[in-house]
Predict the structure of Homeobox-leucine zipper protein like.
Amino acid sequence: MAMVVAQQHRESSSGCIDKHLAAGGKYVRYTAEQIEALERVYAECPKPSSLRRQQLIRECPILANIEPKQIKVWFQNRRCREKQRKESCQLQTVNRKLTAMNKLLMEENDRLQKQVSQLVCENGYMRQQLHSASAATTDASSDSAATTPQHSLRDANNPAGLLSIAEETLAEFLAKATGTAVDWVQMPGMKPGPDSVGIFAISHSCSGVAARACGLVSLEPTKIAEILKDRSSWFRDCRSLEVFTMFPAGNGGTIELVYTQIYAPTALAPARDFWTLRYTTNLDNGSLVVCERSLSGSGAGPNPAAASQFVRAEMLPSGYLVRPCEGGGSIIHIVDHLNFEAWSVPEVLRPFYESSKVVAQKMTIASLRYIRQIAQETSGEVVYGMGRQPAVLRTFSQRLSRGFNDAVNGFNDDGWSIMNCDGTEDVIVAVNSTKSLGLTSSHSNSLPLLGGILCAKASMLLQNVSPAVLIRLLREHRSEWADFNIDAYSASALKASSFAYPGMRPMRFTGGNPIIIPLGHTIEHEEMLEVIRLEGHSLAQEDAFVSRDIHLLQICSGIDEKAVGACSELVFAPIDEMFPDDAPLLPSGFRISPLDTKPGDTRDTLTAHRTLDLTSSLEVGPAMNSASGDASSSYNGRSVLTIAFQFPFENSLLDNIAAMARQYVRSVISSVQRVAMAISPSGLSPTVGPKLSPGSPEALTLAHWICQSYSYHLGTELLRSDSMGGDIVLKHLWHHPDAILCCSLKSLPVFIFANQAGLDMLETTLVALQDITLDKIFDDSGRKALYSDFAKIMQQGFVCLPAGICMSTMGRHISYEQAIAWKVLTAEQNTVHCLAFSFMNWSFV
């Protein structure tokens, strides 16, 4: 009997599924019909309840001789085998990845050993030179050993010269991809492993900026090369790529002359272009190589006039090495080595153009991720929402990104022109009369009679604010900064009916944050595509039961705080609720570009824990440099925030739309500053004091004067007595619930300071505050009351104004229960610096 049980145990362990251990220790043999019935139930419910098992016995006569407990054991064993099968498949997948990663790591280890050997040889050689008799010979030999040989120019005007350049480019590229031509260090935060996309490295010290990636991709080499050569499909900053000349090389390869334009990340810097030679060939070991480098000469492209808007950058030998892998797939090596000519941008922006981490994130890592995304989509591993094909959703993401880049850069050859700008505006307004939603799509609901597109854009410098956290807050708390009526106006351009300024119809939007409907995401969730639904209803009686929801198509990227050097973006555009594939898009949004400041570098370092308007910091010059002395010499996390909003317009409403757009962007800036202040480590306002009037004191000094003068004139404290010491007075004044504003004593008084409540009441920013005169915020009765009491203010030092109505910069009426005006005296109390106002219990009417 024992032998029979042992034999049955061996049969069960060898994979038989028709024998199961019953409660009494005996095996139960199931017939094929019984197994088929049980499998049908398992497919519907892998873990049936006791009642369901009893019902199964009653409904299936063939299971009548099986006890319920035996059926329970069958389902337990069935689930166990399913789990083992899945784990086995996962282990096989992980094993393949580990094998490939091990091979890459071994190659990397070999490269590092070669580099160590080379450094040891160079070290020994230099020691010998130091002991030589001639100091001059020593210097010359040391220089020759330490200097990298420069590229000797070849004749690029004939095929033979181009082939010579191509061969030299190939050799230099291979030395970077698999050799020791560049001192590579591991990319911060990108450790290799079975779940990582690949192995990433950046240059430690070389001319220009460089990054390298190695990874395993389940695509054939020719397919990978085809994808990577189409740079505009995966490189979001690529505006255009045009192949001017292509001819075969003698060894079976091809040589191409390529002109490429790439966008600038912000409106404060010019875009870049490249004139390059691209060489595609096969190596003797079966590897496919695509390498590229810049050529000397103009190579201005198809439109020399348009090329004048670009700064010619240099591409040092770069490219892709793709090797077929045993068992399918390919191992790819990517090298990007560039010189962006950082001298052509403001000094505060140069760290962005001198950072290898930024190149790694925007180009090297992005290309490898894109290839792996295509590979997973091809294998059917990626599932997207709303039944859309992956290619369609990728096109939407590319169109959103491209439309936003076009708006930020505003190229003349696209029809953009600056509107009434004297160079001192904080918000730049550009107009494109050649572009309208009616011309961008064949969609039947587009408007063919629009005058064009208007874009209001601005840039800010963020200090000690995490780009990923800020973008995530802007995405998740849209109601904190967005005006839904402005969204309604932009969305109305997609409707067949006409619209009017500022909105198509009176709307009421429900409270809370909008509904986010995910569409798709990349393999590492570094970019998400989603639809935003804003719920609204018409206030008109005849449309009371008609839904007026607004839908926005949105991409969000760069929300991983560990991604060093990554840009964070939130770009959105109104879209028709039918969500057609050819829907016209008018993207707006935010981009935060990190500035990789080197430790110990205090150049352009602004006062710690502040968020400043970037254009103001560039204008201040030497005066602001004095503040940098107090800044910490350690690394300060800085970044550039670029904001761009696009609006359609009719020609008759251009001026009104421009004014609305400028004020709306200013209100968005104010809201973003408030959010940045909340997440800033200092807890202080990051925006206080960026742009005061000439001769005005620093914000901290002015805050002390305001509080001391209030106490002197009214005999009571504006702030608590424990809030008057040191820097804390500025913090408490900034967060005071009453709207506190200061205006200058001029023939036409203008505001020079406001706390957060004051900015919210006026619906403006500190940057735009000086453009607002005192008389603009009061109505006729308010102005008369103020003028009649002006002499009393100057004589008595203060005056209490009765309840009244004032007006914000957006034209909204504001009621307040009481207002106090008082003179702000300097520390010596012998000079009147300005007038201060405090509006109590204010609210929008």
The radius of gyration is 34 Å. The longest helix spans residues 68-130. The chain is about 35% helix and 25% strand.
